[in-house]
Amino acid sequence: MPGLARKILVFAAVDGLVIQPLASKGQKPFQSARIKYGDASVSAARDQAPDSTKPDSWFEALGVIGLITVSRLTYLVTITRREQVAQVFGLPIYVVTQVAVTPCSSQTEAEESVRKTARLLRSEPSSSAIHDDESSSDEDGEMPIGTPDEEVDDEVVDKVVDKGGVPADSKSSVVQDVIRRRGSYGRFAQRWFSRSGWTADQRRTMGMSNSPTSTPPLAQSAPQASAAGLSSLQEADESPVVPPSALLPKLLRTIQVLFGSSHSFYFSYDLDITRSPTDDASIANPSSPLHTQVKRTFFWNRHILQPFTDVGQDALALPLMQGFVGQRTFVADSQPPQADDPGMESMELANLSPSSSVPSSPPPGTVKRSLELRPTEKSYLITLISRRSTKRAGLRYLRRGIDEDGYTANFVETEQVLSSPSWEASSPIYSFTQIRGSIPLFFTQTAYSLKPVPVLQHSEEANYNAAKRHFERLSASYGTLQVVNLVEKRGVEAPIGTQYQNTVARINEGLDDKAKIPFEWFDFHHACRGMKFENVSQLLSTLKDQLEELGSTVKSNGHLVRKQQGVLRTNCMDCLDRTNVCQSSFAKHMLELQLKEDGIDMSAQIDQETAWFNTLWADNGDAVSKQYASTAAMKGDYTRTRKRDYRGALNDLGISLTRLYSGMVNDYFSQAAIDFLLGNVTAKVFEEFEMDMMTKDPAVSVEKMRERAVELCQKRVVADVSEEFHGGWVLITPNAANVLKSWPMEEAVLLLTDAALYLCRFDWDLDKVSSFERVTLASITNIKVGTYITSTVSAAHMDESRNVGFVVSYQPGKSDIRRRNTRSLSTKEAPKLTASDEPPSAQGGGFAGIFGGNASKEPAIRKLAFKAPYADSSMSVGEAGPGQTELQKIDTICSEIERLASERQLVKEGEERKKLVERGDIISLDAAKRNTGLLEQLGHSLKKLVWA
């Protein structure tokens, strides 16, 4: 079924939630799609229609975002409000401003949610804070241009209907805002400095976005039917019901904020906005589904649309792109008047549309004017499109640097397009593309500091290989590369900047002269100290020739005249504030060159304020910053006004504090939700998050890391080449011997040879062995296998079938070794322990006299504890399932240790070999509950209250 459904009815039928595309005039109605209750299957259904006598039994959606399933509960996500932000070739581009999340797992919940959504949609006036331009009767879904984002009135925000249908209190404190909104920064951000909040002019001057960030009314309609109503689920599905995650309501709220009120997802029914307008493939081919034409790198809802595309419901698959789309018109004169010319007033370079409104979708060959143009004047349209990559996607301190496949965090492709307002073929179209992305090295930064120190990870070779893959991919996609590095040459950023420079230099050693990657290191903070951001012109002067050599793409009369030869890859630490200032400077220079080709000399214009350009780029910077750091961009006042003063510095301080709060509190769950929606992890990620309120990086293969660690430990630790290696495993262990529990527990490597076992404590950031302990197999006296519970703060921690481990008891002897890596020319041998050094529980009988020594004094018994990591994790995407359970893995290891150790035992003739393995609780559930400290319980409860 080619094409896309423009408008869709969503209603509950007897046997499922039905999505029915509306028919355009003169067309046959589309075949509807039904989502069955109790599962995520999608099937076709004809002749379905809502009861027209009950207007609250259905609501009209403007597109399907996708279908999500968590704990066997299924939810449909649809677009209920949109706003047109641009037009390309007369075809509209929209931003999603509101979504509905409708439960599909029971008829009762579905009907109730549909009714609430329908009532809210019908009760909201078209002039509400969240603008909807659906009042048009245009059946094709092309609407007149909506107004740009406006300041949200406090009264409108305060009167959001709560879950009970009662208007919320119009007054609230900052604390109430933070607790209720959980870091969504609605009124909290608006009222940071004053009771009345920032006015629109103040926000624009201070570099703050005017986009409403509060949760819209619809965002409170669907989550109510999330965790409740299990009885109705059982009516629809008799199979056992998995208890929903306690985090499910937060996930649903996050989905609504992410897709709706964040104003960061864009779409078009007729265009492929993931491609340049100069690309012939940007205009969608109506004979094939749009989701098959877009670039997967920028297709953000591909995973959650899969239930529809898998069953052929292609007309419902509407691709979304995260990033920014903005558009402005301006006028320039090829023969500008002199300063004393009476006609000088008409030369003001301003928007043709008042209040920076977005240009409408004019019929081909016409130009909408609000000013009469001189014969030498010409109207232009500038379009700015930023496309955020789905690879290594996420939030600031949780996604840094590069992954093993060469993808970097916060990778954004930004394209600036210059055209005529009506896009007529006779007028040339100019396109200039830049990219930004995190430094392509393995590194991390803590979220608990305003100025965190970057910590390099992994070996130099691993960093080189990943960076090489990254630049090879960029070269294949964009051509020639020019690196622009804006980090500090002194201070905490210097080491990672130096390593970046050295890595690029090493990559260049294997390339010919034409393929080499130029590296320009511009210390932005040093060059622009004293808030003199105009000094960025120094960087522009340095790169001017290279920038002009790369050029831009030009298309005229439907033919490609010239193609951009390469791109500038710009980065700072976050690729936000400094990067946006510099990219806007490069883009303005290229715009002047493009206008000069068209006969316009910008330097000769009377008014060169070009507020339309500065505002467009500042809005772009705010959008990218919100999507990565949850706040508007810093230095936005300079980008907008080309001026910098103390007020901008104070605003940046407030943004820094907000970023610190978000990084410490809100980002962890949001990151888990993003990974889940992109299909990088399974729904089990929320169970894992509930354990420790943290997230893992799905781009880092845990299995590969563990395999490398085992291999490296074997090479570094096993000194005797005659020892036969039998296996290696990564297990969880206390951070010291002779204890069963520590805070925190850590992952370590256990090696087994035919002569000994080795406990290797590993530095996972640096890929180095920190210390190791060698235990001869002959000295092992006992191996205890059983339940091993080290925490009781979550249900998963208390699952006795999954929390298992073993304890190896042995008598220290002369052949046993303990060494610690001192990062110097020598290693340090740990002091020998005597019986008096051991805790009473660790002492006991053993094979006295085997290793010699004083027979009258029994040697100490030393214990090493190991716990199995969870076999089934959220990062097992696309796998059939874990190969072994936790207990099976422990049994395998212990059986192998026992077999090899038994061969080393000294047994008198006629005696049987003693069995080493015994079953019994290491730490039982009851013991764990008794021993879990109040501080640990309080700490986890407090984190859960704030984080979740």
From TrEMBL:
Boundaries of every SAC domain copy: 261-630
Domain HSac2: 700-851
Region (Disordered): 106-154, 203-236, 332-369, 817-843
A Pfam family hit: Syja_N
Biased composition (Acidic residues): 135-154
A single cellular component GO annotation: endoplasmic reticulum
Feature: compositional bias, Low complexity: 216-234
InterPro entries: hSac2, Inositol_phosphatase, SAC_dom
PROSITE patterns named among the record's database cross-references: HSAC2, SAC
A single BP term in Gene Ontology: phosphatidylinositol dephosphorylation
Molecular function per GO: phosphatidylinositol-4-phosphate phosphatase activity
Protein name: Predicted protein
Species in which this protein is naturally found: Hypocrea jecorina (strain QM6a) (Trichoderma reesei)
